[in-house]
Amino acid sequence: QDEQFKKVISHAKEYGYVFQSSEIYDGLSAVYDYAQNGAELKKNIRDYWWKAMVQMHDNIVGIDAAIFMHPTTWKASGHVDAFSDPLIDNKDSKKRYRADVLVEDYCAKIETKIEKEVKKAQKRFGESFNKEEFLATNGRVLGYQEKIDTILKRLGKSLEAEDLADVKALIEELEIACPLSGSRNWTDVKQFNLMFGTKLGASAETAMDLYLRPETAQGIFVNFLNVQKTGRMKIPFGIAQTGKAFRNEIVARQFIFRMREFEQMEMQFFIKPGTQKEWFEKWKETRLKWHLSLGMGEDNYRFHDHEKLAHYADAATDIEFKFPFGFKELEGIHSRTDFDLKQHEEFSGKKLQYFDHEDNKSYTPYVLETSIGLDRMFLAVFSNSLVEEKLENNTTRTVLKLPAVLAPVKAAIFPLVKKDGLPEVAKQIVEDLKWDFNVFYDEKDAVGKRYRRQDANGTPFCITVDHETLENNTVTIRHRDTMEQKRVKIEDLKDLIKTEVDV
Ligand code: ATP
């Protein structure tokens, strides 16, 4: 797993997808830059989401709210008081951990132990080994399993103050059962606010304390009535938005999975109170379908329903994806009731109500939210696409099998050789195709090598101009995943590519 993840990170750098930010100054932790290919992939994911959410739904519109918001926003939303992570320091190593993430790590370690026990037993019992029976009856394994179950029960999304002492005790207990940090000397668990503060205004006396938004959702809530009125929207309707969010995350690891500056794609769907269960199910289904439409494997997704809910929610689920380090949250779907709009009504003194002409009455709508991290989605797509294939001649080929619709470059065009007028024809094809797709011209090295470069780059098609092209205006088109080559007419190229890369 670790090995695969390392490969993902180095491939992302080598092929111009993701760089460490400010690398020449040794980087900034949990901050990354998208490079020439990464920016394209990210944009394509964003567009794919926008198209599905805004363009395809006639009752959803998109906005682009500012990153800076009036500071009272964050009091109303609860972020000033409650947007924090539980922190614990190890007194010996002076290392700081996010308590819930640390507990997760212990869980993972215990799971590895269980796997080892299973493998050992499998070897011993050979054919007659029955995994289910072994897991259900083996004392040691059951002990481990029990530990994990207790942990999962005790750890919810929002840790209350009284839980913190509990978590410390749990960490101490786990460290004895399954040493991870090598030291048992912990501080108490403290809560740490994740918002970045900044100042608006030049002079010290008049400057106003601001926060960089930690989520894009609030920009939608405060604009609810403006959009509803000017767009003449009728409930149920949605407002979608993509944009940067900032969180001072303590645990900076797992590459772009958890960043300090990241991008969200959120949609708040405003509904009639009492219909939230129905819409919650509907949006769970709709969002999962969106993910599956990319063809990255049904088994790589699962729902994780929350038992312990945040103060604003009456139902919540995560769509989890199988990242190289295991199943983790990719998207959240939350039934937020009227919490947000009511809070903003209270703090702003303005009514944020909707007049329902059918029922002839006003109410504060309920909200169903879908929230996905663009960078996390990038990591899901990228890590899932990177494969190493053994070929018949015993060589291996590295392929980035990106869904064609998301690939940064749709087609690479090569002249077979750098003479006989082939480059000119190839360049003309580039000129013709570039109005519709991102294409790339390459004439360096043997054609086989060029194919491999594009495979690793994620380009779904390679088009080669050879001597036959000069006779009959045909070229070969090679498919990245199957490596199959077909001879086609130059004039058919555009439609051929379009059928694969258009949604
Ligand atoms: P986590 O539990 O992983 O910290 P969260 O539950 O706090 O995530 P939400 O507040 O529900 O996340 O945010 C919605 C989505 O935004 C998440 O599903 C995730 O895809 C993305 N996201 C949240 N925090 C980060 C981050 N630090 N870096 C990248 N993406 C993030």
Automatic annotation (TrEMBL):
<protein>
    <recommendedName>
        <fullName>Glycine--tRNA ligase</fullName>
        <ecNumber>6.1.1.14</ecNumber>
    </recommendedName>
</protein>
<dbReference type="GO" id="GO:0004820">
    <property type="term" value="F:glycine-tRNA ligase activity"/>
</dbReference>
<dbReference type="InterPro" id="IPR022961">
    <property type="entry name" value="Gly_tRNA_ligase_bac"/>
</dbReference>
<feature type="binding site">
    <location>
        <begin position="262"/>
        <end position="266"/>
    </location>
    <ligand>
        <name>substrate</name>
    </ligand>
</feature>
<dbReference type="InterPro" id="IPR002314">
    <property type="entry name" value="aa-tRNA-synt_IIb"/>
</dbReference>
<feature type="binding site">
    <location>
        <begin position="373"/>
        <end position="376"/>
    </location>
    <ligand>
        <name>ATP</name>
    </ligand>
</feature>
<dbReference type="InterPro" id="IPR002315">
    <property type="entry name" value="tRNA-synt_gly"/>
</dbReference>
<keyword id="KW-0067">ATP-binding</keyword>
<keyword id="KW-0648">Protein biosynthesis</keyword>
<keyword id="KW-0436">Ligase</keyword>
<feature type="binding site">
    <location>
        <position position="98"/>
    </location>
    <ligand>
        <name>substrate</name>
    </ligand>
</feature>
<dbReference type="Pfam" id="PF03129">
    <property type="entry name" value="HGTP_anticodon"/>
</dbReference>
<dbReference type="InterPro" id="IPR045864">
    <property type="entry name" value="aa-tRNA-synth_II/BPL/LPL"/>
</dbReference>
<comment type="subunit">
    <text>Homodimer.</text>
</comment>
<feature type="binding site">
    <location>
        <begin position="329"/>
        <end position="330"/>
    </location>
    <ligand>
        <name>ATP</name>
    </ligand>
</feature>
<keyword id="KW-0547">Nucleotide-binding</keyword>
<dbReference type="InterPro" id="IPR033731">
    <property type="entry name" value="GlyRS-like_core"/>
</dbReference>
<feature type="binding site">
    <location>
        <begin position="369"/>
        <end position="373"/>
    </location>
    <ligand>
        <name>substrate</name>
    </ligand>
</feature>
<keyword id="KW-0030">Aminoacyl-tRNA synthetase</keyword>
<dbReference type="InterPro" id="IPR036621">
    <property type="entry name" value="Anticodon-bd_dom_sf"/>
</dbReference>
<feature type="binding site">
    <location>
        <begin position="257"/>
        <end position="262"/>
    </location>
    <ligand>
        <name>ATP</name>
    </ligand>
</feature>
<dbReference type="InterPro" id="IPR004154">
    <property type="entry name" value="Anticodon-bd"/>
</dbReference>
<dbReference type="Pfam" id="PF00587">
    <property type="entry name" value="tRNA-synt_2b"/>
</dbReference>
<feature type="binding site">
    <location>
        <begin position="247"/>
        <end position="249"/>
    </location>
    <ligand>
        <name>ATP</name>
    </ligand>
</feature>
<feature type="binding site">
    <location>
        <position position="215"/>
    </location>
    <ligand>
        <name>substrate</name>
    </ligand>
</feature>
<dbReference type="InterPro" id="IPR006195">
    <property type="entry name" value="aa-tRNA-synth_II"/>
</dbReference>
<comment type="function">
    <text>Catalyzes the attachment of glycine to tRNA(Gly).</text>
</comment>
<dbReference type="InterPro" id="IPR027031">
    <property type="entry name" value="Gly-tRNA_synthase/POLG2"/>
</dbReference>
<keyword id="KW-0963">Cytoplasm</keyword>
<comment type="similarity">
    <text>Belongs to the class-II aminoacyl-tRNA synthetase family.</text>
</comment>
<feature type="domain" description="Aminoacyl-transfer RNA synthetases class-II family profile">
    <location>
        <begin position="133"/>
        <end position="415"/>
    </location>
</feature>
